[in-house]
Amino acid sequence: MVAHIYGTGGAQIRPAADQAVSSADTLLAFVAGSIAFYDSHRTQMRALIQILNGHPQARERWVDQANCCP
Questions:
Q1: Does 1 have pLDDT greater than 70?
Q2: Domain presence at residue 69
Q3: Contact 57/8 with Cβ under 8 angstroms?
Q4: Fewer C-beta within 10 Å: the chain N or C terminus?
Q5: Residue 4 CA to chain centroid, in angstroms?
Q6: Looking at the domain assignment, is residue 70 inside a domain?
Q7: Taking the complete model, does pTM exceed 0.85, yes or no?
Q8: How many CB atoms lie within 10 A of CB 14?
């Protein structure tokens, strides 16, 4: 479920961000796309939050590792 939600979000958000011509436009496209995705997928976002908060390893696997810098 988590991978599906992230994949669906990425498929919706990424095209506009990839077409941006500047870093500011990329950030704007990412933020606007994220907000639109959250708004149009409220049930999935609620499920994602419940999964990440309710499973001990879920946050580490899906959030912490994805956001770390080597």
A1: yes
A2: no
A3: no
A4: C
A5: 11
A6: no
A7: no
A8: 13
Contacts of 44-52 with CB under 8 Å at 24 or more apart are 44/5, 44/8, 45/5, 47/1, 47/5, 48/1, 48/2, 48/5, 51/1, 51/2, 52/2
Task: Check if the beta carbon of residue 14 is closer than 8 Å to that of residue 8.
Answer: no
Residue type, 44: Q
Query: Which band of pLDDT confidence, cut at 50, 70 and 90, is reported for residue 18?
Result: very high
Domain holding 19, by residue range, is 2-64
Examine residue 42 and state whether it is found in any structural domain, yes or no: yes
Q: Give SS3 for 55.
A: coil
Tokens at residue 56, please?
């001990």
3-state secondary structure of 21: coil
- pLDDT 10s digits, 28-70: 999 999 999 999 999 999 998 888 787 767 666 666 655 554 5
